[in-house]
Every structure is written in C-alpha cells, then in structure tokens.
Amino acid sequence: MLRPASHRLGPLPLILNSLVGNDIRALRKSRGLTIKELSAVLGRSVGWLSQVERGQAIPSIQDLSSIATHFGVNISFFFRSANQRPEERGLILRSADRTSIGSSGSGLVEELLSPTLGGSFEMIKSTFAPKSSSGGLKASRKTEDGGVLISGELTLWIGTLEVQLKPGDSFQFVEQKYGWRNDGAEPAVVIWVISPPIY
Known about the structure:
The protein is an alpha+beta fold. It folds into two domains: 5-88, lambda repressor-like DNA-binding domains (434 Repressor (Amino-terminal Domain)); 98-195, Jelly Rolls (Sandwich), CATH 2.60.120.10. Helix content is 24%, strand content 26%. The protein has helices spanning 5-8, 12-15, 18-30, 35-42, 46-53, 61-71; strands at 100-101, 108-112, 122-128, 132-133, 144-151, 154-158, 161-165, 170-174, 178-182, 188-195. Strand 6 and strand 7 (161-165) form a beta hairpin. The chain is globular. 24% of the residues are buried. Mean pLDDT is 85; it is low at 1-15.
C-alpha cells in the first residue's frame, strides 16, 4: 500500500529510478503508443518523457498519477519495490509488495509477480472468481501466453479448442483468441506468463 504523500516526497529520487522508467516504457509499448502520443496525453514534452523512460528524470506524483490513470493501473504499481533493499530492486518482488492490475469487475483479479516490466516476459497471478467468465473470446494479441493452474478448476478456450483444466495442468499459445469460465464454487488460480509484457 502507498504511504501518504508527505512520507513519499523525501525518498522519491531513490525510489523512482530506472525501474519506473522501464515500467512506463513497457506500459507504453504494450498499448502501441509512441513517446510522442503519450507525451501529448500527459501534456509533457517528448524530451521529458524520453528522459523519464531512461531513468534520467524523475516524474512527480501528479505525473505518475496521470500515467497510472491512462494505463488503468493503480499508482502503487510504480512503488512496488520501494520498500526493498536497493540490491533487490528489479530482481526480487516480495509478496507484500505485489500490486493488483486489471479489473476485478469481470470476476478476474490479477497480481503482477514480475519485479520489473523491462524484460521480455511478465508473470501474473490470475484469480478467477467462482461462477465467473470472460463473456466470450477475447481478441488475439501479439503475445505468447502460457500458464499453469494452481488451484480450482477452469474451462479455457484457445481458438476453437475448449479444455477443462485441473490443478497442475498447463497451457501455451501464440496470438490466438482465448476465453475462460470458472463453473466451480471456489476461485481458480493460474500463474500466467506473457511475452512481451502487456501491463
């Protein structure tokens, strides 16, 4: 959880380093935006945003709030490594520092497991609520997806294939439409790997 702003302002230069820049760049690229397009949305210069993404400038809380709102993540997303030892940042993400991503309105709650989005893939813990579904197939995206069901049961569609997953079952697909449904009375938990990162 984010600390009150009055406690954050002092250590900002230590916290908001190149990791935050990497995350902003990954979010921007995952949405297919150019630096020019995102800087226009934020009302900032291209040069400033370029420096932020390279870790050479530190965005204000207001800037981060605008970026988080635009990409549909909580501002705490950018502070998930703030309480860690400097040598762990970008390498280790403690369970207490995970942040929720995406929307829970559809019965899906996701937590980012990756310490940074600067790599070639991301890890997500997806929890599908009982009696919830994707409401049909989701559009294909330019990613390779894979995962393993940790608990519960889940129906997964990959293109025209429909499969029933049980704990320990895994899957992998590239650029295909997919959907899901949890008919069970307990949450279904999947560790999901996506390349390249989309959050």
